[in-house]
């Protein structure tokens, strides 16, 4: 590697983080409680262990400060330790967090959520997204009496439960009989989806998908999917874990005006606190309740699902979004960042290799090799240079805590990274700039 590459930006010194990572791996499978946070997702010896965060910044235990993107795996959209959220949480902590009967906070949170997402009629809270999506699938199977689940192909994650994980390369431990009940349909292709529903006539309980991804839904697609679900008698489920709040306060369904039967929310709902939601039509949701005469569905029953401080956090988040136009702020910040990154990449001659994608409030980047194919090695190079510039960015997903100066700094660091990227492309080999093994995909069969 050229000495000028080292001089431009110095990689963070991480002796304490390296020791902590060894401790993590010794006691926690994978070294983290979420695979996407694993040190295999970062360049070798450059996986900081976090001490604390405030706003758009985090500090590692070695004392290095970073601008952080994709905070909390997209969950911290208002920035760390947001004062309105933390104050709401503190108020409830002094009043007790969990009781033998429902707290009044539970109905207040339900009323607030349903006012925010008026397309739903009932809601049940939980702690994580997987519980909510699996409950939606179970409810759809119970309501239709059908066994199969149709998932949207190419969408990265729906649940840790067998009905989904069995379809990934990490399917060890999932019986084939379970996986066989999950089928896939392509996003944006109504003809192929109808062919699937005809192939498995009267067998598909639900269609589950993220209503929008890194591309906008084709015109008429979501409405067409709604019509298909109605025509074939299956339940339409929108996984709004990511689109919720980032697309609009009411999620993608609120933005695009297509109402699913059931939808699931999480991530941004708690600004880092553990809360998720399953919401939907009353006649479906009530099957998991007590005021009906049919067979009961074990919908959601979680000891910690209604902890008062998490529900208070959710209410504070919704109030902040509404009063401060947070979704608009996220879009404005993302548009500024995307334009700057694209301009920097183009100026360095790598505009066709470092590609920013997605809605402005949910930006990701692709790193492509000399043949314009996705490359983990070029991703490693790029991440190393970002870290050297004090930017911790597995994605470019913004929080509202970012300011214009933060965006400008990020663009400057990206420009320096692109200069190195160009050299690696010219050499047709990024190896000299990797300083270790490349980062790895989360979903892979072998460790």
UniProtKB/TrEMBL annotation:
Pfam families: Aminotran_3. The keyword rRNA processing does not apply. Keywords: Isomerase, Pyridoxal phosphate. It comes from the Bacteria. It comes from Streptomyces niphimycinicus. GO terms for molecular function: glutamate-1-semialdehyde 2,1-aminomutase activity. The lineage of its organism: Bacteria, Bacillati, Actinomycetota, Actinomycetes, Kitasatosporales. This is Glutamate-1-semialdehyde 2,1-aminomutase. Its cofactor is pyridoxal 5'-phosphate. Belongs to the class-III pyridoxal-phosphate-dependent aminotransferase family.
């Amino acid at each position: 590697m050229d000495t000028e590459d080292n001089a431009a930006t110095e990689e963070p010194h991480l002796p304490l983080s390296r020791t902590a990572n060894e401790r993590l791996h010794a006691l926690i499978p994978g070294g983290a409680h979420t695979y996407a946070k694993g040190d295999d997702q970062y360049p070798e010896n450059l996986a900081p262990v976090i001490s604390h965060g405030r706003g758009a910044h985090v500090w590692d235990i070695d004392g290095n400060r970073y601008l952080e993107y994709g905070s909390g795996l997209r969950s911290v959209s208002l920035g760390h330790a947001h004062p309105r959220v933390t104050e709401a949480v503190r108020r409830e902590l002094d009043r007790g967090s969990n009781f033998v009967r429902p707290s009044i906070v539970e109905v207040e949170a339900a009323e607030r959520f349903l006012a925010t997402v008026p397309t739903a009629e009932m809601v049940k809270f939980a702690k994580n997204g997987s519980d909510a999506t699996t409950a939606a699938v179970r409810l759809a199977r119970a309501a239709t009496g059908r066994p199969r689940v149709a998932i949207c192909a190419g969408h990265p994650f729906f649940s840790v439960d067998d009905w989904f994980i069995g379809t990934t390369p990490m399917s060890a431990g999932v019986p084939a009989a379970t996986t066989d009940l999950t089928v896939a349909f392509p996003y944006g292709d109504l003809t192929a989806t109808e062919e699937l529903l005809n192939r498995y006539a009267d067998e598909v309980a639900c269609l589950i998908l993220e209503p929008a991804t890194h591309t906008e839904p084709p015109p008429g697609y979501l409405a067409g999917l709604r019509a298909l679900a109605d025509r074939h008698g299956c339940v339409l489920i929108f996984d709004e874990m990511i689109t919720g709040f980032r697309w609009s306060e009411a999620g993608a369904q609120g933005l695009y005006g297509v109402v699913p039967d059931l939808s699931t929310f999480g991530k941004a709902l708690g600004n880092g606190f553990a809360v998720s939601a399953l919401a939907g039509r009353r006649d479906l949701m009530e099957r998991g309740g007590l005021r009906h005469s049919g067979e009961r569905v074990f919908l959601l029953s979680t000891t910690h699902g209604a902890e008062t401080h998490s529900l208070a956090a959710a209410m504070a988040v919704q109030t902040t979004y509404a009063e401060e136009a947070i979704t608009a702020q996220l879009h404005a910040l993302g548009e500024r960042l995307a334009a700057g990154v694209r301009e920097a990449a183009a100026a360095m001659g790598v505009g066709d290799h470092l590609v920013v994608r997605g809605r402005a409030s949910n930006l990701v980047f692709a790193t492509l090799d000399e043949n314009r194919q996705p490359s983990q090695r070029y991703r490693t190079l790029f991440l190393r240079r970002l870290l050297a510039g004090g930017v911790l960015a597995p994605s470019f997903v913004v929080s509202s805590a970012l300011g214009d100066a933060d965006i400008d700094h990020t663009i400057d660091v990206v420009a320096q990274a692109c200069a190195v990227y160009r050299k690696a492309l010219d050499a047709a080999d990024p190896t000299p700039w990797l300083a270790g093994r490349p980062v790895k995909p989360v979903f892979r069969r072998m460790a």
